[in-house]
Amino acid sequence: MKQRVVITGLGVMTSLGHDLETFWGNMMAGKSGVGMIELFDVSEYPTRIAAEIKDFNPEQFIDRKEARRMDRFVQFATAASLLALKDANLDVKEDTDPERVGVSVGSGIGGLSTWEEQHKILLEKGPKRVSPFFIPMMIANMGSGQISMITGAKGPNSTAVTACATGTHSIGDSYKMIERGDADVMICGGAEATISPTGVAGFCALRAMSTRNEEPARASRPFDTDRDGFVMGEGSGILILESLEHARKRGARIYGEVIGYGMSGDAYHMTDPDPDGAARCMAKAIKDAGISPDTIDYINAHGTSTPVGDRSETIAIKQALGDHAFKVAVSSTKSMTGHLLGAAGGVEALICALALKHGYIPPTINLENQDPECDLDYVPNQARQADLNVVMSNSFGFGGHNATIILKKYEQ
């Protein structure tokens, strides 16, 4: 028998807030988390803005010695996971069988700043001065590894690396692990910290990012005619998934239920999306959920604010939902958080869970002149109260990796 899977805890670390109340309040107010980059000198860069976390202190969550042995993305992943476990009122070692608790926290790029620092040491001081912690700090699986070590989770432990689809793949894979009985609890989501000299330079070279440096808060503008690229973000979004049976036994508070997961490949182009791949991904999630497309109330779009990407996703939604595409509410919260790359899916699934709980749809801010080719209801500029029952979250990554999850209001 397939296990029902519910969401019992949420943890977030973004430029909009380090706790759920602050994060959700800023999102409902339509606040932008984008500002000037302060982590390094950007004076020679075409893009000088990002959704940077300005006031993060890892020692609030992690022992100082251990924190120094973690890349920034691992610090984000660990902090958000501990917040999510606290929100779920769950102690892995005390409240459950640790061998039945797993971790799946991915990163699209991993420890880029650690790589940069150690490569500089190699060139300037030689190979003997490279840190023995270089490799374990840099590799993308270390978020899942450190979370397991800190919490005591001994169940399934894995890491997805599928670019901007990473977080959603991590959650979807975790959902399936619990559904088939491989675990009772999964700590899952994504983390990213690539606001670094090489990271920003690389995306600038791709001409993928906005250069609206004089108006940082207005730079991320999905589905708007004047959009000129995405704005990079950083942070982590973590969900605690449990089998319904396990959650009921311990009297857990439930945000919602995961009911569908789809994944597909474009087999088309390294960086340009194919609407057909995204449409097939959504259709697979709908089929997995056993629902009709016209039951979906809200879609948290991938919506990166790139000219090609937003048009492609609009086409894909129409293909997957048919006429209902014009009736469903769609918004891109990247307009406020920036694009967290491998962490985006985790943060956006968390947003969907909060939308179900509070009955509000977050807005797409900066949508002032809607692109005629993007002709759906994108909830412009102001949050909207709504009776939400079924919501969908999309994530699409370089390489043609697509992931979609569907959440539902919990009913006994």
TrEMBL record:
- Sorted alphabetically, which PROSITE patterns does this protein's record hold? KS3_1, KS3_2
**Annotated active site:** 164
What top-tier enzyme class does this entry carry? transferase
One matching Pfam family: Ketoacyl-synt_C
One GO process term, biological-process aspect: fatty acid biosynthetic process
Q: Which family does it belong to?
A: Belongs to the thiolase-like superfamily. Beta-ketoacyl-ACP synthases family.
Q: What does this protein do?
A: Involved in the type II fatty acid elongation cycle. Catalyzes the elongation of a wide range of acyl-ACP by the addition of two carbons from malonyl-ACP to an acyl acceptor. Can efficiently catalyze the conversion of palmitoleoyl-ACP (cis-hexadec-9-enoyl-ACP) to cis-vaccenoyl-ACP (cis-octadec-11-enoyl-ACP), an essential step in the thermal regulation of fatty acid composition.
Segments forming domain Ketosynthase family 3 (KS3):
2-409
InterPro entries to which the protein is assigned, alphabetical = 3-oxoacyl-ACP_synth-2, Beta-ketoacyl_synthase, Ketoacyl_synth_AS, Ketoacyl_synth_C, Ketoacyl_synth_N, PKS_Beta-ketoAc_synthase_dom, Thiolase-like
Q: What is the protein name given in its UniProt record?
A: 3-oxoacyl-[acyl-carrier-protein] synthase 2
The source organism is Paenibacillus piri
A GO cellular component annotated for this chain's UniProt record is: cytosol
Which GO molecular-function terms appear in the entry?
A: 3-oxoacyl-[acyl-carrier-protein] synthase activity
Show the catalytic activity. (9Z)-hexadecenoyl-[ACP] + malonyl-[ACP] + H(+) = 3-oxo-(11Z)-octadecenoyl-[ACP] + holo-[ACP] + CO2; a fatty acyl-[ACP] + malonyl-[ACP] + H(+) = a 3-oxoacyl-[ACP] + holo-[ACP] + CO2
Query: EC no.?
Result: 2.3.1.179
The metabolic or biological pathway listed in the UniProt record of this protein is:
Lipid metabolism; fatty acid biosynthesis
Q: Which PANTHER family match?
A: 3-OXOACYL-[ACYL-CARRIER-PROTEIN] SYNTHASE, MITOCHONDRIAL, POLYKETIDE SYNTHASE-RELATED
Q: Which UniProt keywords apply?
A: Acyltransferase, Fatty acid biosynthesis, Fatty acid metabolism, Lipid biosynthesis, Lipid metabolism, Transferase
